[in-house]
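pasting for the record
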Amino acid sequence: MAISFDALRDHYPTDPKAELFERMGGQWPALVDDPLYANTCCVRLSIALKGAGVGIPAQYKEAIEGDGTAIVLKVKTMGELVTALLGKPYWGMSKNPGQPVGAGTIPARAGILVYHVAWNDATGHFDLWTGNDFVGNGNFGGIADGFSLAFWSLV
């Protein structure tokens, strides 16, 4: 399936979590301080996919927006969804936690990037990658903490 990077970027919410949850409606505004919903990378990518015309199939649904639209909450599930949509990653690497990775290591192409980390409150982070920087709140410190990365190139 062809997914436009520009369409994803245009629909990727970068507003603060409280504003994002307010805009999502339903029960989301009440969850803004709930530690179970502290990480929003998969929620944000779900919203971007929806805006780009790619719905979340029922088997990947972990929650719903106020309008009833399916969204993904977990990095593992988002990885399964992105792989189902786009196939195997264009690029990936394993690394030792603590080993830094700079922008020059990641392909200089636009796409979807995930890094896997053993944090207490998350197993990694999904973000859009412009070819030299993150669209969301991904960062190289988080990548340094991690043990693997995968990247899906988009047009």
